[in-house]
Amino acid sequence: xxxxIEEFYYGNIDPQARGFEQNKKVQHxxxxxxxxxxxxxxxxxxxxxxxxxxxxxxxxxxxxxxTLDSFIIGFRLGAQFVFDTFVTTKAPYIDYLKDEI
Length: 101
Description:
Order of helices and strands: HHH
Number of helices: 3
Structural class: mainly alpha
Largest sheet: none
Number of strands: 0
Distance between the termini: 37 Å
C-alpha cells in the first residue's frame, strides 16, 4: 500500500471489515437477546409489539450513534498521538544537550 489516504478514499481500507474470535459470553448474550425479543413479541398485543419494536429500533439507532462517536473520538486521539510524536517537540523540560549537537 503506497498511499494510505488514496487507498482509504477508494474504499480499499474498510475499518469495519473485522471479525471477532468466538466468545462464549457474547454468544450467550446474543442468544439471550434473540430469545427475549422473540418471547416478548409473541406475548405482546399488536400495539404493544409495535411500541416494543419502536423501542428496539430507537435503542439500536442511539447505540449506533454512540459507537460512531466513540470511533471518531478514538480516531482523533490516535491522530493527536501521531501529531505529538512526529510534529511537536514541546516537552516539560529544556533539552540542554540539543544546542551542543
